[in-house]
Amino acid sequence: MSAVLRIQLSYVSSTTVEVRVEDSARGEPRQVVEMPLQGAAIQTLLNVLEASDTGNQTLTDSEAATLQRVGILDEARVPAADVLRRRVGRLLFNALFPTSDQADHDVRAAFVATLAQAGQQREPVTLQLRFDRDAVDLASLPWELLAYDEEPLVASGRVQLTRYVTFAQATAPYPVTDRLEVLTITARPRDALTLDPAAETDAIRAAFDDLAQRGVVRIHSLSPPTPDALAAAVNARTYHVIHFDGHGVFGRRCPLCGAFNSEDTPVCANTRCGARLDDAFLEGFLLFESNKGDGFSQMVSPRELATVLSERQVRLFIASACQSGAVKGATVFNSIGPRLLLAGIPAVVAMQYSVPVDSTVVFSKEFYAALARSESVAAATSAGRRILVSRGTWHIPALYLRSRDGEG
Fold it and tell me: Which of 142, 174, 185, 375 fits as disulfide partner to 370, beta carbons 3.0 to 4.6 Å?
């Protein structure tokens, strides 16, 4: 088992954060650090990261000045994607692990010592970042880009990064099962962009083929891929792994007409409605096919999905959909990943930003192949991330875990 370093991040003020190491071989050092980015500046950074591969990102003078101040830009234009990722990773590492001349405040020393010890044993470090429910800005940052001595730690495999949300409810252990039941949901609404109809499901079946033939794994497909069908399916039997393959969006649903609105829209974009959206939650949605049977999309919120899956003994949920792991809104629980943790699902893999389709397919293939080899969820996620290095998208999958060992 890899070495685990647990780090709790808690706000002290709107701009300062206490970084506290828990249960390390070097004690429990803590530091209060200044976060280099807050609020709108974080969103600017995330927008630049998403658009960097296309090279068409334009910035206002104010946005460019903000990113220049923290060293992301040297001039008012976005650098090449790999340079941008490296600069962001270095910025985040220095924010999380600042240097200190006091041993009881030297969080960096605890990390470096753990990394060195793991390296001697040829094992990765499992770095578990722990967030409070109100730490939305902190949880929204792309910590998966952390870079030390110019080395991207997650991409290199030296670090397995997992995310943990602190809340009072304990996650009860589930009984051991003789056969793993996997449910795939392939949603292809007619009013959404076209995706490959079966690539991810085929990858899952291929990874588990040998185990399926021996009766150790059984794979089911949800048909039709609607919210009602999902509720009926989990009522009828226990599924240990649920994989959603489709679209995700982040915004507001109009409380009157139900239309989707982007996060910065003050009134409903539906011209026949025009309702104000002051009380509409800013949250993530997965696009299922509609219960009406017309093939159009139906948005399912984190709260709705959590209600359906709560107390159903689901061990792992994978949301292979854009924005499914994004963190925005009033609390982290407005997002799919953290909300499912709150519902009692101990492990959730979700995509933090928009993600190319080919990346999700190859990630799924490597992820499930690792699970089939009996590797932990953290190790399987690390395997999936490594296959994305050549595509520059390794930082997009986020792993949320409630297990204290950080492995899953």
Answer: 375
pTM, 2 dp: 0.93
pLDDT at position 215 over 70 = yes
Element holding 227 (H helix, E strand): helix 227-236
Strands 151-152 vs 147-148: parallel, antiparallel or unpaired: antiparallel
Of the candidates 69, 83, 92, which has an alpha carbon nearest to the alpha carbon of residue 140?
A: 92
- What is the radius of gyration, based on Cα positions, of the chain? 21
Q: Does residue 77 have a pLDDT over 80?
A: no
Residue 178 confidence class, pLDDT cut points 50, 70, 90 = confident
Give the domains, in start order, of the chain with CATH numbers.
3-165 (no CATH), 180-401 (3.40.50)
For 401, the token pair is: 């875990």
